[in-house]
Each structure stands twice: as C-alpha cells, then as structure tokens.
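Lab notebook: predicted structure, single chain.

Context: the supervisor wants predicted structures on file for every construct in the current expression panel, including those that have not yet been purified. This is the next one on the list. No modifications to the sequence; it matches the entry in the shared construct table.
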Amino acid sequence: MERRYARPFIVLLSLFSATGALIRLSAQDSPAVTVEPAPATTENIASPAAEIQTAPPHAAGDTYVPEAPTVVDTSPGAASFNDTATHDVSVPGVPSPVTASPVPDLPPTVSKTSWLTSLTPSTLPVHFGLSLVGSYNDNIFLQPFKVYDYITSISPSVAYVQGEPDNPHSNFLSIAYQPSFVFYDQNSYLNNIGQNFNLQYAYTFTRLTLSFSQGYTKSNQATADANNIVDLVSYNTSVGANYVYSEKLTLHSTITQNITNYSSGGRSNVNQWTVNNYFLYALTDKLKVGAGPVFGFVDQQNAENQIFEQLLGHIEYQATGRITLKASGGVSDRQYQGNTPNQITPVLNLSCEYVATETTILRLSARADTYSSADLQGQTFTEASAQVGISQRFFQKFFASAGVGISRNTYTPISRNSNNTGPDRQDDYLAMNGGLQWQPNEWLSVGFTYSYAKDDSNYNFATFENNIYTMQISGKY
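Prediction complete. Output recorded below exactly as produced.
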C-alpha cells in the first residue's frame, strides 16, 4: 500500500490512541418511542439518505429509504446515535440485508466503572458519544467505471433522554444530535459535514398514548437510484395516537410528513403526507390480528402529483420469547393527477426474529411497495426485496454477523407531459455483508466489516459492483 493511501488510516489509528482515555464519553442508545407505532405503510419517499441503523423493517410512520444492504458503513458520515461497533449504512437503492446486530445483553459481571463515573451522577440524563470510522470504498459513485477512495469520519454525539421508552406506562423524551465530519483522501472536494437531529416524545394517559417525533438529516453520499453522490436534506415529522379500548382491542393512528430536498441539480424533490389507521385484536396471548386503511398524497417535483390508498392486514405473533413476527400486507391503488393510468401494486412489510439460543439470533425480512425516484424525474419505482441475517455471540464479548439480500426495482414513467415518459428501467440487486465486533464492556466497541453490492440493470450507466472494508471504534457514556 502506498504511503499516501495509508495516510487516512494512520491518522485514524492515531486518533484512536489519543482519544482512548475519553472514549467512554458516549451516548446511550436513543431508542425510538415504543408506543406501538403503526405498522409500516412503506408507501414512502425514496430518499437516498442512508438507513443508519440495522433495524428490522420500518414501522409505520417511519420514512423508508429504499437503500442497499445495511452493509457496514459505505459512507462514514452517516453515523447512528446508537452506534455499537459496526457502523451500519446502506448503498441506497439496494435491499437492506438484516445485519443481525450483536446480541445486546452483556454478561451481568460487566459494569460501567471509570474515572468519569465519579465525576457525573449515574442519573444524569445527558449522554455523550464518539465514533471514529475508516473505510476503503472501491466505487464511491456506484457507477460502472470505479473510482476508489479512503474515507475517514469523526462523529461525536450528545443526547438528552428522560423516561423509559420500553415502558408503555411511562412518559418519554429524547433529544439527540450528531454531526459527522467526513474526509476523502483522493477526492477532497467531497469532504463534508453531515447532520443528524432527532426529537421523540410520548405522553401516556390512562388509556391513551400520544407521541411526536421530528427528524432532520443532511447528508452527502452515493445512491443506487442516482448512481452518483447527491446532497440531501430531509425532514421527517410524525404524530401518533394509540388507544387501549379493552384488554383485547387497541386502536392506532399515525400522521406523517416526509420532505426530501436535493441541492444537487436534476433531482426531484418530494413532499409526502401519509395517514395510517388500524386496529389490533388479541386472539390469544401470543397472537394479534388487525386491519386498517392508509391514505397518502405525494407532491413530486417535475412529475404528476399522486394520491394513494392502501388496505392492509396486520399480524403480530410472539411465542415464548424466541419467535417474534410482525407483518402488514395488502394492496395499494395509486392515482396520478395527469395522463398516467392508475397503478395497483402489492404492499408487504414483514420482519421475523428467531432467538435460536442465548447467543444466536436469526432474522428475516421482506418488503414490497412503490416509491418516488430522485434521479429519473417523473418516475416511480416498485421494489420487491427480501433479506436474511444471523448474529452469533461467542466468548461473551465477541459478535459475528452476516447478511444477504436481494431486490428488484421496476421503474414506471410518469410526467405532466404524456409525450415525455422517460426510459423504462429495471434493477436487480444483490447485497452481502459480514462483520466481527469486540465489545469488552458496555461503553466501548471495536469492529471490522466487509460489504458487497451488485446491480444488474438494463441501464448500462446504472450497473455497478461495490466493495467496502470498514473499521470502526465507538464509545458511549
């Protein structure tokens, strides 16, 4: 390896050593409000922002970003507030193979003791974090002709957390902010500062729980939809209400607005509203079923506005704490305010987790829905994808994980001008990833990951292969 290629990693390792005494300053996870958010409509905007966490398929009210494998960080700038060791990001446009994140529970003998503990009370609601990431990416633009680079990112974070998000009878407030300073070794003009802000609040009455969330993201990264690096700013707002009608029946409603703006030229900004209503009825202690409608409006730049309705069925199943299944599925009817014919498509959002042993977790997810294209103006695309993953803990403090996913994205031309239909495009994606993480205690983790993504497209400019090697160290307090 030439000396200039190794420079970012030497700098990164130096930072690791210099910050060793401070790495305990890191934020605890800023968990989402778990007031039983509405199951995913997945009728959301195709935002090229990275899917920052390796979570199961998105719950309703979330803005799904049809991204690539939740492979390790392809863009170190997109850090998560609750980074462990594997800095998970996606290559947008490709499916997100479930990365089977490490088993979260540490041995009970592990305790948080440090010089910082004596300086701060254990009940302090403010938490700090730091994530340092170095990666080699052999195709930073996701194009047929590869351009490689060595990328380094530094991502501090701060979070204010009050309440217990996992307690349905507790109020909860979380405010988190994380900038990411991203440096490219070979293409320094791409250096940028990413921004992530998230506010979540839930208030519980006797039977009624109200929730609110506001997210803001500013990023600069490549997407498979655009096959280029794009500047993105997104605002995601959600208001929810859950009502316990009886011991068996619960009612759920979520209203979301997702705004996606691109500063890069030639992209289609999108503003989408979604209303999701459904009920869940407990047939048994382990099985809940339900149904409900979804209504939405999409204002897409340089394209016909869209109105859609979905009718979805819902199922939740949990058996003996080992198997957890959540699924919603049905049909979507999308109408265009122009000459484009109505579009009827299937909708599916499924996640399943199987805890095989105390140290082994298997995950499966599948997804199908329609999104707005950021790159091909006046087009939508229908995605059908599936992902599987496994995580294994060994020697108590080590975690191995692997995932694979496939996806097909089929584009449909829409335009205010019926003669300007644009090209028909179809992409078939394959994504794989694997990683090893060492977590010696609850505040420090070190990991190495490898990810691979491939797109076979009938558009020559959209076909690509991508390999990413990432090393990350994260701390939280």
